[in-house]
Design goal:
The chain is an alpha/beta fold. The chain has a single domain, classed as Spore Coat Polysaccharide Biosynthesis Protein SpsA, Chain A (Alpha-Beta Complex), CATH 3.90.550.10. 34% of the residues lie in helices and 18% in strands. The protein contains 11 helices and 11 strands. It has a 9-stranded mixed β-sheet, sandwiched between helices. Strands 5-10 form a two-stranded antiparallel sheet. Helix 1 links the parallel strand 1 and strand 2. It is globular, with a radius of gyration of 18 Å.
């Protein structure tokens, strides 16, 4: 199958550089990598332009105007630009294992979406990688939380990984799914403007069409660079969208991927769309 990797980013070119470096060294290359850029400034575009010259597959930059935290919309634009029939989502502050794409591909099933693991690095470990421009991180690296998650073992993974109809542990920073299912449920709900559970809400609609969550442990490892939490304190008003989806057992959102796949919508010259090499 053809794989597309979608990488979200916003104004952290140092981290994105490490993420792209780790993707360029994969044992299995995707057909394309699409950067879902939620309004970054010039340094990010310059970095992507430099990577295009030497990246081992097509590198696409989807950029949208900075109008608040609109990662759901950025991901939808990137899905529309992607060419693969299987999509892996990863954040631009993740350094992925050399077999990351290979593991997602091996675990892919038509009845499931894949949730991978994300062992987190400490602030000191993150600064060391950024300063040395290195992606040399492993199970044995210092400064790692949830170290057990970083142990890659195909045998152990097959024993402990489970497919269930649950939202437990869902995070779109390391998640993969068949593209036709994303089209069927209409992608991410673009009513999510601000930090919120847009990933779990998308996963809920996948569950409602009969696609289970397969939590793949000890494979598909992506190491999370440290940054302060962006989660708001107290109850998030955007939780109501997830609650509505669960209550109504919705399978499709109204404002989603269709806004990018619809030719009439794409014809409106509102914002820069896609730059492809």
């Amino acid at each position: 199958m053809d794989i597309s990797v979608i990488v979200t980013t916003y104004n952290w070119p140092g981290a994105l550089n490490l993420s792209l470096s780790s993707l360029a060294r994969q044992t299995m290359l995707p057909v394309d990598v699409v950067i879902a850029d939620d309004g970054s400034t010039a340094p990010t575009a310059e970095l992507i332009g430099q990577w295009r010259k030497r990246f081992p597959c097509t590198l696409t930059h989807y950029w949208q105007e900075d109008a608040g935290f609109r990662v759901a919309r950025a991901r939808n634009g990137a899905i529309a630009a992607a060419r693969g029939d299987y999509v892996i989502f990863v954040d631009g502050d993740m350094v992925v294992h050399p077999r990351f794409i290979e593991d997602h591909c091996a675990a892919a099933r038509r009845d499931c979406f894949i949730q991978g693991v994300r062992p987190r690095l400490s602030a000191n470990a993150t600064q060391a990688l950024l300063a040395s421009n290195s992606t040399a991180v492993s199970f044995l690296s210092p400064g790692m939380e949830h170290r057990a998650y970083a142990l890659r073992s195909v045998l152990l993974s097959r024993i402990v990984s489970q497919a269930r109809a649950t939202l437990a542990g869902v995070q779109s920073c390391n998640l993969s799914c068949w593209r036709d299912y994303l089209v069927q449920i209409n992608g991410f709900d673009e009513r999510f403007v601000g930090w919120g559970p847009e990933d779990r809400e998308l996963a809920a609609r996948l569950l409602h069409i009969g696609v289970q969550r397969n939590y793949v442990r000890h494979r598909a490892v992506a190491y999370h660079l440290y940054h302060p939490s962006r989660a708001p304190e107290g109850r998030n008003p955007l939780d109501r969208i997830l609650e509505e989806t669960l209550r109504t057992r919705a399978t499709r959102c109204e404002f989603g991927l269709n806004l990018h796949l619809d030719p009439a919508s794409l014809a409106q010259p509102v914002e820069p769309r896609v730059a492809v090499v």
